[in-house]
Amino acid sequence: MMWRIRRKKDKKKKQSALKQSKQEQDPLYTHITENENQFRQIYEDCSDVILHPFSIGGKHQALLIYIDGLSNTEEIDDSVLSPLMTATVNDGEQQVSTLIKNTVAVSDTKEVHTFSDCIQAISTGKPVILADNSQTGFSLGLSKWEKRSVESPEAEKVVRGPREGFVETLTVNTSMLRRKIRSPKLKMQSMEIGRYTKTNVMITYVDGLVDKTLVEEVLNRLNRIDIDGVLESGVIEEFIEDDPHSPFPQTLATERPDIVTSNLLDGRVAILIDGTPFSLIVPTTLYSLLQAGEDYYRRYLMATAIRWLRYLFLVISLLLPSLYVAVLTYHQEMLPTSLLISMAAAREQIPFPALVEVLMMEITFEALREAGVRLPNQVGSAVSIVGALVIGEAAVSAGIVSAPMVIVVAITGIASFTIPRYSAATAIRMLRFPMILLAGTLGLLGIMLGIIMIVVHLATLRSFGVPYLSPMAPMQFNEMKDTLVRAPWWKLNKRPRLTGESNKYRQSSGQKPSPIRGKE
Amino acid sequence: MVDKGKISAMQLAFLLYLAITSTAVLIAPAITGGIAEQDMWLAPIWGSIAGFLTVFIAYRLNTIYPKQTIIQYSEKIIGRIPGKLIGLLFLFYYLHLNALSLREYGDFVVGNFLPETPMFVVLGTMVFVCAAAVRGGIEVMARTATIFIPLIFFLFLFIAIMLIPDLEPKHMLPIMENGIGPSLTGGFLASSWFMQFFLLSFFLPTLGKKQKGLKWGMLSVIATMLTFFLANLISLFIFGDITSTFNFPVMSAVRYISMADFLQHVEAIVMAIWVTGTFVKIAVFHYVLVIGTAQWFKLSDYRQLVFPLGFLLIIMAIWSAPNLQKVAHVLGTTWPFYDVLVHVLIPTLLLVAVWLRGKANGKNARKK
Fold first, then answer.
1. What is the ipTM of this complex?
2. Are A188 and A271 in contact (CB under 8 A)?
3. Strands of A128-131's sheet, edge to edge?
4. Shared domain check, A312 and A448
5. Are A303 and A273 members of one domain?
């Protein structure tokens, strides 16, 4: 019910937004001077917009509009201006528009009829040509602007695997996907989000693998968004999540084309956004947030072992500080005697209870990490290492924190770096603090209650209709071989059930390699 | 249907298994050991007969009224007022039973691990977590149980394997020294846990595939029986005749675990993991209470009831018994009769009533 009310409100808002730009919806005028005046009014005080009046073959008045720096000026001069200006115009009834169409040597030429069409074309870097006595203009696909070149992704490095990452330009990103999936089944639906930024957003999926209702749902949720501007995928993520208050990310943000490709082939939908290298993959599950792309390129035994290591360190990064507090405060008998004695000796001088000590150190560590991220490269690493060393070492020798505590914080920090997805790692980092408080008040029981609470929350979560904990709960034995372990490729015959239902098998079975023997 | 969630029969079996074994393993060996003595290992086997019976009755009633729970169909079978009264009895019974389980948990935690924490805090935190799960609905509870079941399973396996060096099989001799009587009486006490399988009646309407309900229900009874049997056997092999003097024999047995001077005093970990089982138990019974109450009052949503009834549960747990000994005494003496009344007698009578009416209707139909 709430949804419907909200949707109605959204419609109203959108309508009022449309009214404001009503005049931009008007069709072009016939006279070039009127058009020119209108454009000069629209682009008042926009000194980067160039309006260049010229005449076609010395007879027809024409106007060229483009934005400096967004279009390829050389091409404009060579293939648009010079052919048009030198064109021989017959006195016959030849239309100006056909003349332009036939003379301009640009492959991507489209007719435009309204002011808003023109504005849209111009702002995407496509020059627009208008001619006198014609209500039809032409937009020319000559956009060219400074782009970052394709580099290896900063946030998701691999030892083995493709080294290209997405860039800020949408067309480059889509071309990378198209190069990986060379099938017309790869569909890309584009839409614009943002009243002012008019950001191009691409909904990408593989037809025949994806569940159609999922695509519709994605489109619906994206269509509801009505904001000023989209600067990063994070903005869109917050609008389309199922549970916006959860600390856990319900979309997978990645800047690796190979990860997007493999998810598309599993029947998921990717949302690519212009202006950011991060694309969103929906639906996602907790386990996919714990998988690195490299898992699928490594030998499967190693990949499985690494996966288990990752699960273990996930638990450690969540629980180690709170276990330390719980054991030292409530359950000292759990420690072997010799360890207990050395711990007690180390803690003898410490004035604080374990809870305060842990909170203090953990908060300091988080602050150090945050500072390290923001600092410029030259000083960043030095400051963070030295800071940690000095603070750790000095704090221990000054008797403010105990040495075991420093070890616990260090291991916890390393553990949180083993989680491949940054957004998932931050969720765990944040949940660590309530766990520490629970451990300080109720001991192991408190930790357990905290874990139950987290599991209950995770069990409630859904990402675009897919339970967040699947395939563990609800249990699907068949998919365990890609979550608990990473089965060899020739065993991964089926697609994930919840997203790849429409086309179950991804490869033919029985492909286990069996070399010919006995040729000594 | 108050809760629109759908679960699979396997998830249902997990839920019931966790809900019933978690307290059964904790205190049942002491209760059954008090009467059956060295034959206590037989008690779960006799008791499980009641389990199979209740699962069967619940399933039969469900096939007649596939989308309703006993709170709803009791009204249809024997009329509005008597049906409401039966519903009320069930609701009170579940509140009482859950309050006692909660009290057992509270006494267990306060007595063994957190002696200075007020009982109210221990109970309150647990009920809060359970209420959060119940609010999420049956699907959330089922998924949570699915996550926890491997944990509990490996814990139990761990305990059993670690205790092997301390086991003394000769404690079980002589078998049936005083005839079959003591073990049957013990079985009757044990059956009160197995009769709780009547909970199935509240969950069968949520099943996606109904036919599998009976099979997984029975499997769940078998798994419970085996776990129960193993718990009794371990307690007997370690403590022999003195099993019944402990409040929580299995937990006392865990204190014997010691490996290479490193792995010892693991009872805190065992307790911590056990909490997940208790959580499922209290959540399941609370869910049944909340859903039942919503159906009794014919409400369209049950969520508003979760926290108020949770509060009632805490108060009930504190007031219903002065101490754990009283709880154990009640469970070992009068409780099984209460159980038989609610979980076997009333459902059987309802089933007979349906059957008789069906016959009468059949005769009428033939006459016409």
1. 0.90
2. no
3. A49-56, A60-67, A128-131, A137-140, A109-112
4. yes
5. no
pLDDT at A2 over 50: no
A506 lies in some domain:
no
Question: pLDDT of B350-366, one tens digit each?
Answer: 888 888 887 777 666 55
> Rounded distance, CA A130 to CA A53, Å?
9
Residues in chain B within 8 Å Cβ distance of A497: none
Domain that holds residue A256: 170-284
Rounded CA-CA distance B234/B241 in Å is 12
pLDDT at residue A476 in the model: 78
Give the gap in angstroms from C-alpha B147 to the nearest C-alpha of chain A.
Answer: 6
Q: List the one residue out of A417, A462, A504, A426 whose CA is nearest residue A285.
A: A462
Residues of A with CB under 8 A from a CB of B: 330-331, 333-334, 336, 442-449, 451-453, 455-457, 459-460, 467, 469, 472-475
Q: Which residue in B has a C-alpha nearest to residue A451's C-alpha?
A: B276
**Nearest residue of A to residue B125, measured between CA atoms:** A449
**Does residue A182 fall inside a structural domain?**
yes
Judge: A443–B129 Cβ closer than 8 Å, yes or no: no
Q: Total structural domains in chain A?
A: 3
Here the contacts of A221-224 (C-beta below 8 Å, separation 24 or greater) are A222/A191, A222/A193, A222/A271, A223/A191, A224/A6, A224/A7, A224/A10
Is 1.20.1740.10 the CATH classification of the domain at B9-367?
A: yes
Give me the residue label for tokens 């260090």.
Answer: A410
Give the DSSP H or E segment for B240: none
Q: Could you read off the pLDDT of A196-240 as tens digits, one per residue?
A: 888 999 999 998 888 888 999 999 999 999 999 898 898 999 999
Strand ranges for A68-108 from DSSP E: none
Look at residues A452, A415, A410 and name the one whose alpha carbon lies nearest to residue A435: A452
State pTM to two decimals. Answer: 0.88
Cis before A420 (ω within 30): no
Q: Chain B: give the shortest CA distance to residue A441, in Å.
A: 9
The rounded distance, in Å, linking the Cα atoms of B46 and B52 is 11
B55 part of contact set with chain A, CB < 8 Å: no
Alpha carbon distances (Å) from B306 to A353, A424, B137: 37, 31, 11
Say yes or no: A192 and A131 in one domain: no
Residues of chain A in contact with residue B11, where contact means CB-CB under 8 angstroms, are 474-475
Q: Is the pLDDT of residue A469 over 80?
A: yes
Cβ of B273 under 8 Å from any chain A Cβ? yes
